[in-house]
Specification:
alpha/beta; 12 strands; globular; 14% strand
Length: 392
C-alpha cells in the first residue's frame, strides 16, 4: 500500500517511552513468563461502587445522550469548586476558574499550545512526566530542564537558572507529589516559585495528579493554597488516581482566569466536552463519600512499607516515597538504569521503568509502581533476593 507521508509536526513528536515498556512486557508474557509489571502508572483497583452506580443511572437519562455544553456542565464546575474549598480551603469561581479536561494529560499537552509561540522557552522538571515534552513539541517551543536532585529533596534549585533563561521563559511545569520520584513540595518552595514566576512573567502549571496520595499522615499541599498562586498559574487535577478512574478520562484545571479561558477556547475547537453521564459521575466522586480515598491511601502505604522494608532487608539502601504511588530506587553501582531494569526483567521477570526514560537526571534510578498486591510485592523482593546482587 502506498505510504502517505505524515506532517513534519508529527515527525517532531517525542517517542512514546511507555509504549516500548508495554511491548517489552508483552513479549515476555507471550513466552509464558509470570511477569510482575511495576513499570507503568495504571491504577489496579476498581472505581468505587457509588461512582459507577451514578454513571449507570446517568447513562440511562436521555438528556445525557445529547451534545453537552462545549465547556462542560456547570454542576461539575461547581463540584470542583466545592471540592477545593472542602479539601484545601481554596475558593474557586466555578464560572471563571475551572476548565473541564479529558483527563489530566490532555490539559498538560494543551497548555503549551494555549500560551506559547514557536521558540518560546518552557521550564520542565528532569526527571519528569514524559508527556510534558509532547505539548512542548506540538507548540514548537524550546525546553530548558530543571534538574531534580536527591540533595534538594527532588525540588528544582532555581539558582541554576540563568537570568537570561528566566527572562525568556514563559511557562514552567511542576509536579508534586512527584512522578517519578515520590517527593512532595513545601509551602516555602511554592512561595519561592510564586515570587520567581511573578518577577519573570512565567506561568506555572502545577500537575497535581497524585494530590490525594500522601504518606505518614502528611497531606500533600495544593499549589493554590499558597498566597499569590492564582496570579501566576493553574493547577491540573485528574480523577484517575484519586478515584481509580484512569479509563474514564476526566480531570480539570483550576486557577488563573486568563489561562482557564485560553484552555476553554482551544477545547472549543477540539471537543464537544465529556459525555454527560461521566460528568455526573465525576461530580459524585468529588462531592460524595471520601472514605474510599482514605482507604486507597492506606492501601498504598501498606504496599510501600512491604516493598521498602523488604528491599532494606536485602541490603538495598532505598528511600521511601512521601507521596504518589511510585518508589524511586537508586540502582546498584556500576549499572545504568536500563541495564538494571533489563536484569530485573530478564532474570527476575519484574518490570520496572528505567529512570533515563524520565530525563537525563533520572539516570541511576528505576521507578517502581505500588500497583500490585502486598503478596506480589513481597514476591518481587524474593525474586530480587535470589539474584544475589545485594549484600546485607
Amino acid at each position: 500500500m502506498k505510504q502517505i507521508p505524515s506532517s513534519d509536526l508529527l515527525k517532531s513528536l517525542p517517542k512514546q517511552f511507555f509504549a516500548g515498556l508495554v511491548k517489552k512486557v508483552g513479549e515476555y508474557i507471550a513466552e509464558g513468563h509470570d511477569v510482575i509489571n511495576l513499570g507503568q502508572g495504571n491504577p489496579d483497583q476498581p472505581t468505587p461502587g457509588h461512582i459507577v452506580a451514578k454513571l449507570q443511572e446517568a447513562a440511562a437519562n436521555p438528556l445525557n445522550h445529547k451534545y453537552t455544553p462545549f465547556q462542560g456542565h456547570r454542576y461539575l464546575k461547581q463540584a470542583v469548586a466545592d471540592y477545593y474549598l472542602s479539601e484545601y480551603g481554596v475558593t474557586i469561581d466555578p464560572d471563571k476558574e475551572v476548565a473541564i479536561l479529558f483527563g489530566g494529560k490532555a490539559g498538560l499537552v494543551e497548555i503549551p499550545q494555549c500560551l506559547l509561540n514557536p521558540g518560546d522557552i518552557v521550564l520542565v522538571p528532569d526527571p519528569g512526566y514524559p508527556d510534558y515534552l509532547s505539548g512542548v513539541a506540538l507548540a514548537k517551543a524550546e525546553m530548558v530542564t530543571m534538574p531534580l536532585r536527591a540533595q534538594y529533596n527532588f525540588l528544582p534549585d532555581y539558582r541554576e537558572l540563568s537570568a537570561e533563561i528566566l527572562s525568556e521563559a514563559k511557562l514552567m511545569f511542576l509536579n508534586y507529589p512527584n512522578n517519578p520520584t515520590g517527593a512532595i513540595a513545601t509551602a516555602e518552595f511554592f512561595e519561592e516559585t510564586i515570587k520567581l514566576a511573578s518577577e519573570n512573567d512565567i506561568c506555572v502549571v502545577h500537575d497535581f495528579a497524585y494530590g490525594a496520595i500522601g504518606f505518614d499522615g502528611e497531606k500533600p499541599l495544593s499549589f493554590l493554597q499558597v498566597e499569590g498562586a492564582k496570579e501566576v498559574g493553574i493547577e491540573i487535577y485528574t480523577l484517575s488516581k484519586t478515584y481509580n478512574m484512569a479509563g474514564w478520562r476526566v480531570g480539570f484545571a483550576v486557577g488563573n482566569e486568563s489561562v482557564i479561558s485560553a484552555i476553554e477556547l482551544l477545547q472549543d475547537h477540539l471537543y464537544v466536552s465529556l459525555f454527560g453521564a461521566v460528568q455526573e459521575a465525576a461530580a459524585e466522586a468529588l462531592t460524595g463519600p471520601q472514605e474510599c480515598v482514605k482507604e486507597l491511601i492506606r492501601l498504598y502505604e501498606r504496599r510501600r512499607n512491604v516493598l521498602i522494608e523488604g528491599l532494606h532487608s536485602l541490603g538495598w539502601n532505598v528511600t521511601a516515597p512521601k507521596g504518589s504511588f511510585f518508589a524511586w530506587l537508586k540502582v546498584p553501582d556500576g549499572l545504568s538504569s536500563e541495564e538494571f531494569a533489563n536484569i530485573l526483567l530478564e532474570q527476575a521477570h519484574v518490570m520496572v521503568a528505567p529512570g533515563i526514560g524520565f530525563g537525563e537526571f533520572g539516570e541511576g534510578y528505576v521507578r517502581v509502581g505500588l500497583l500490585s498486591t502486598e503478596k506480589r510485592l513481597a514476591e518481587v523482593v524474593g525474586r530480587i533476593s535470589r539474584l544475589g546482587i545485594f549484600k546485607k
